[in-house]
Please model this.
Amino acid sequence: PPLPGVEVPPPSRILNSIRSRAGKVVSVPATRRALELGDARVANMVLLGAALAAGALDGFVDAAAVEEAIR
Model:
């Protein structure tokens, strides 16, 4: 729950603010997808997969190495 006296902006306002500063922004419903997979704790893996698929980690992380580490 929000803190008393603290206004939390709507997600669309937050995303618009980030987009105006960062350029390309991809919103990923990681927790929802993780829950669909059966465990909220895999949300980080959902985000990692999304980042790899978007090419955001090219030159930093080898997708094949990540796949091998998961197996």
Q: What stands out?
A: Residues 15 and 62 are 28 Å apart (CA to CA). The radius of gyration is 16 Å.
